[in-house]
Specification:
It is built from seven helices and twelve strands. It is α+β, with helices and mostly antiparallel strands and 248 residues long.
Length: 248
């Protein structure tokens, strides 16, 4: 009886996070600097699968990688034609949504990711972006607009997986990204289930004069406004002097 009790206690206190397959991953860079000449950046995501046992047979392994940008509250406005002009007739505030969202996978998502697993882990944009508002015009408009701006992407089949062990892909950050923390998640999928996941982050930050102007605008709005008016007035005066010289 004592031996059985000891064996049971030993089983209960075994590490619960022991897994047969685990993600070991890294990024080519974890900090992106945005300046006046910034035209986008490319992040290489790469890694390997650490195993405690042989690779299972007849059970393909897949990798899904997501990158999510800072979340903002957005206002979606609907325009309508009234008296011959287009005006805003309705506005709806949308809750916190990622300003950027990319999903990359080894194969087509419908072949490797069941809807239930997707709902539990919120992997695709449809399950991650305000799933409770699915079907509402404001949500669909937000997703459509960000897809058109190349901020929401789905890249099926663009994660390379070699011998079920080494994987890599590149994530392109466009020039119109916002400042903040970009969360990267990596999922190992086997038989439609997530067997391991790994998370890290990318810090996107304005530098140089852009950083100074950004801080000034948000921390000293009055000074920023006065300075903007002064600069506009100076350029206007300069332009008028140039035209006066030309006319002579």
């Amino acid at each position: 009886m004592m031996h059985r009790l000891i064996a049971l206690l030993a089983f209960l206190f075994l590490p619960l996070n022991a897994q047969a397959e685990q993600v070991v991953a890294a990024l080519s860079q974890t900090r992106v600097s945005v300046n006046a000449n910034f035209d986008g950046s490319e992040i290489l995501v790469f890694g390997a699968i650490k195993r405690e046992a042989a690779i299972p047979e007849n059970s393909p392994l897949d990798v899904i990688i997501t990158v999510s940008g800072p979340e903002h509250v957005e206002t979606i406005r609907r325009k309508d034609r009234r008296f011959g002009i287009w005006i805003n007739v309705e506005a709806q505030v949308i809750g916190h949504t990622p300003t950027f969202y990319t999903v990359a996978s080894t194969r087509a998502l419908h072949d490797i990711l069941p809807p239930l697993t997707d709902s539990l882990w919120k992997i695709t944009a449809d399950k991650r972006i305000l799933p409770g508002m699915r079907g509402l015009p404001a949500r669909e408009a937000l997703i459509r607009l960000r897809e058109n701006d190349d901020l929401y992407r789905t890249r099926e089949g663009e994660v390379s997986l070699i011998e079920d062990t080494l994987f890599d892909t590149s994530i392109a950050l466009p020039s119109n990204i916002v400042e903040g923390t970009y969360t990267t998640r990596i999922f190992l999928i086997r038989d439609g289930e997530v067997i391991d996941s790994y998370g890290t982050s990318i810090n996107v930050q304005k530098v140089g004069i852009e950083r100074w102007l950004y801080n000034l605008a948000y921390q000293n709005a009055l000074i920023y406004g006065v300075m903007a008016l002064a600069i506009a007035g100076l350029f206007g005066w300069g332009a008028s002097q140039v035209f006066r010289l030309i006319r002579r």
